[in-house]
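Researcher: Let's do a round of design. I'm pasting the structure tokens now; please hold your answer until I've finished.
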């Protein structure tokens, strides 16, 4: 008989809110991938008793779910936990809970100083190294301190791209041996493939949109570079183009409070209301409809980690127009790329763009999901065995 594979009990802390959809989707996609193949991991997700019921139910599809009020903000246990970590640099209450459920490794929690189990933590990106002007001096100092502490105290750090790995080598060269790249894979909603012409007509009526439009799903943070697209639209309209750009996402940037005002003033001054549609936050299901029915999806960002928007489009074979970031080229090499600082570069692509030029085919989602899961399982086994 062959040697029996040891079961490894892995914990995640899923006390997250719907306000961080990117994080929620990351966890969902990772847990889905793990469950999709045979493996030796037993996954437990810890949530607060007050965590949204939809989030609890989502986690229950893929893992054992344990509720505890240590994860409920302002509960007595939450306050005690904060006090002990701040004063004693220990996690006695959390360790007691993890020990009770025989957790051998805590993953993606950003928690360190654990005596009873190993830790894998995730750093999504090093944006502040590339765009320091987007952060205050205090924020940069805090990020540097937090990242370095996380790297030193974790058994393993996972990064979402090889582009981020290069940043890691610059940021913490002594700890390169701790870093592993884990490129996440998004699972599209199965309803996406059932959307039809009637759904498109309904969407057009709901938002009063023309039949042909490009789509930007990014939040309105300044580094997402919406203004370059809008400058390109202005040039095209001056040449009698009827181009339409549909934008969804939170219309605020806490670091640049006046940014949205700059955008709305630009639209007003150049009479571009019909060409640039700012829809703000929309129903999550409508996001996938915009992706499906747009001529192409645009991501003009000046910086990305491993973009969930790009990943979602990749998983359904949607054609994209992307800024020329190295990480974009790594993530979706078949896209069309433009110089992220050059309005004319994007304008030329939009002017001559035809879906017929693209020939995009959906990536082998099943195979990519399998590779995603296998890579994570390999990382876990490596940490436990070494």
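Researcher: That's everything. Go ahead.
Model: Designed sequence:
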């Amino acid at each position: 008989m062959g040697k029996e594979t040891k079961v490894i009990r892995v914990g995640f802390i899923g006390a997250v809110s719907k306000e961080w959809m990117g994080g929620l989707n990351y966890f969902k996609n990772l847990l889905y991938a793990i469950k999709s193949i045979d493996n030796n991991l037993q996954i437990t997700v810890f949530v607060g008793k007050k965590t949204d019921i939809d989030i609890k139910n989502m986690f229950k599809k893929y893992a054992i779910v344990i509720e505890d009020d240590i994860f409920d903000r302002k509960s007595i246990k939450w306050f005690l936990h904060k006090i002990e970590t701040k004063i004693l640099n220990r996690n006695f209450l959390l360790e007691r809970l993890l020990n009770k459920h025989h957790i051998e490794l805590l993953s993606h929690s950003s928690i360190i100083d654990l005596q009873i189990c190993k830790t894998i933590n995730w750093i999504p990106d090093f944006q502040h190294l590339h765009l320091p002007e987007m952060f205050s001096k205090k924020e940069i100092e805090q990020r540097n301190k937090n990242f370095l502490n996380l790297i030193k105290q974790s058994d393993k750090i996972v990064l979402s791209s090889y582009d981020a790995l290069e940043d890691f080598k610059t940021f913490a060269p002594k700890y390169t041996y701790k870093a592993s790249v884990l490129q996440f894979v998004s699972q599209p909603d199965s309803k996406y493939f059932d959307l039809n012409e009637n759904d498109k007509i309904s969407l057009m009526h709901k938002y009063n949109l023309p039949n042909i439009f490009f789509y930007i799903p990014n939040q309105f943070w300044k580094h997402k570079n919406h203004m370059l697209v809008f400058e390109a639209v202005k040039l095209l309209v001056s040449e009698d183009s009827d181009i339409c750009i549909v934008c969804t996402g939170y219309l605020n940037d806490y670091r640049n409070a006046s940014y949205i005002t700059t955008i709305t003033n630009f639209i007003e001054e150049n009479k571009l209301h019909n060409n640039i549609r700012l829809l703000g936050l929309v129903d999550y299901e409508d996001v996938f409809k915009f992706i499906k029915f747009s001529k192409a999806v645009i991501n003009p960002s000046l910086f990305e980690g491993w973009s969930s928007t790009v990943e979602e489009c990749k998983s359904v074979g949607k054609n994209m127009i992307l800024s020329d970031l190295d990480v974009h080229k790594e993530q979706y090499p078949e896209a069309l790329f433009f110089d992220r600082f050059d309005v004319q570069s994007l304008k030329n692509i939009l002017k001559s763009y035809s879906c017929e030029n693209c020939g995009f085919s959906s990536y082998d989602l099943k195979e990519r999901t399998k590779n995603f899961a296998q890579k994570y399982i390999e990382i876990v086994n490596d940490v436990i065995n070494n």
